[in-house]
Amino acid sequence: MSQNLLELGPLSKSFGTAAILREVSLTVRRGEFMTLLGPSGCGKTTTLRIIAGFESPDSGRVRLDGVDVTDLPPYERDVHTVFQHYALFPHLDVAGNIAFGMRMDKVPEGEIARRVPQALAMVKLSGFEKRRVSSLSGGQMQRVALARAIAGRPALLLLDEPLGALDLKLRKEMQLELKRLQKKLGIAFVYVTHDQEEAMTMSDRIAVFNAGRIEQLGTPGEIYETPRTSFVADFIGGANIYSAEVLPAAAGRARLLIEGEHEIDVPLDEHESLPAPGGRVKIAIRPERVKVFYKDELPAGALRFKAVLLDSVFLGDACQIYLDFLKKSPDKPLTALAGGDRYSAHDDLGVPVIAAVQPEDVYILESDGR
User: Fold this and answer.
1) CA dist., res. 38 & res. 193, Å (int)
2) Helix (H) or strand (E) holding 181
3) Which residues contact 225 (CB under 8 A, 6 or more apart)?
4) What is the pLDDT of residues 254-283, one digit of tens each?
5) pLDDT for 95-115, tens place per residue?
6) 242 with 251: CB under 8 angstroms?
7) E strand or H helix at 115, and its extent?
8) What single string gives the DSSP state of each residue in 124-156?
9) Quick one: pLDDT at residue 211?
10) What is the DSSP letter of 275?
11) How far, CA to CA in Å, does 4 sit from each of 28, 32, 57, 188, 227?
């Protein structure tokens, strides 16, 4: 038996003259929580709809458990979909909503009677069988939609921004519940969201979409710690992104001139390649990796940048600090993130400081063609 449950690709899809998907290839493993993450219009929902059978690709194939299902209608695929707005039937009670799909699949009534309470127990709604869906809260309706999907025992569950209509506190609670439920069921989930924190919290792997393509695929740790492009670095967690000129350097090292002002020497990963000296790349530095000092008491081996404290914003558990460190480009401040107990908002603005970054915390991204 193959480890991969779902195989896509290369999928292309256009609506009129707009290319929505551009040769997207992806595999989903059995029992995996895969998230399709990206901004609106990037192609993630279209990919989900092609998997479900609601859209047909212009080119490329969809294989589920080794079977080509590209030309099959949705009801002939072993796939269930949970939508953002639940798609529950208001004239049916909770049990009727959960049983509906199974009745369409001609599951015996005795088996339906057994599965309905099992599904409700899994989503912590035991005893809600006779409740009208109109009497439920948003979180409860979402749980009913999930119970309906898992009661059908699909090989693959697709979730299209299912928590988008919930308030922040409930959404965070449901994230943990969904992850717990997915692990308990052992069903592969393909989950669409534009919420970076949600993707990082729940996923085994994340496919980051941008302009109809997958820019990077990896675990949450890989996506965050080793972003490959400026889009991924900025979209996942935020980053300071600058242009740098490549200078001659020793083997295994990269010497870079940031924005024509600051020269740095950083280690070069064995898988990284650079343009020839004189070429340009983009670099990224995570705000939490930037340390701010009032005196020249730097950690060992750190890169040092003289800067001026522009502004600070108190965030409760942290403080976001903006530093002016580029004379030629004052519109590109360096952002740092410090503990909320260290800096007060608007404290000591305009004073000179030292920004320190460890060399290994400078990520070298794609070539900068400017």
Assistant:
1) 7
2) helix 168-185
3) none
4) 999 999 999 999 998 877 778 999 999 999
5) 999 998 888 888 999 999 999
6) no
7) helix 109-122
8) T-TT-TT-BGGGS-HHHHHHHHHHHHHHT--SE
9) 94
10) P
11) 6, 9, 21, 10, 25
Q: In the predicted model, what is the mean pLDDT of residues 67-90?
A: 89
User: Which is nearest to 231 in space by CA: 207, 215, 213?
Assistant: 215
Evaluate whether 24 touches 47 at the Cβ level (below 8 Å). Answer: yes
Q: Which residue has the higher pLDDT, 65 or 346?
A: 65
**Mean per-residue pLDDT for 65-81?**
93
- Can you tell me whether residue 361 is helix, strand or coil? helix
Total structural domains in the chain? 2
pLDDT at 140 (0 to 100): 86
Neighbours of 336 (CB within 10 A): 27
Q: How much is the pTM?
A: 0.88
Domain range enclosing 297: 239-367
In this predicted structure, what is the pLDDT of residue 1?
Answer: 63
Range picked from 122-126, 175-179, 228-232 for highest mean pLDDT: 228-232
Last residue within a domain, chosen from 233, 250, 278 = 233
Q: Do 221 and 164 share a domain, yes or no? A: yes
Rounded distance between C-alpha atoms, residue 159 and residue 51, angstroms: 11
Q: Token digits for 275? A: 């343009």
What is the reported pLDDT for 343? 54
CATH code for the domain in which residue 315 is found: 2.40.50.100
Matching residue, tokens 């530095």: 285
Tokens of 278: 């004189």
Report d(CA 101, CA 229) in Å as an integer.
42
Q: What local confidence, expressed as pLDDT, does residue 48 receive?
A: 96
- Whole-Å CA distances, 70 to 5, 58, 66: 14, 11, 12
Shared domain for 171 and 265, answered yes or no, is no
For the chain, what's the residue count? 370
Residues 6 or more apart from 32 whose CB is under 8 A from it? 5, 188, 189, 204, 205
Q: Is there a single domain that holds both residue 229 and residue 243?
A: no
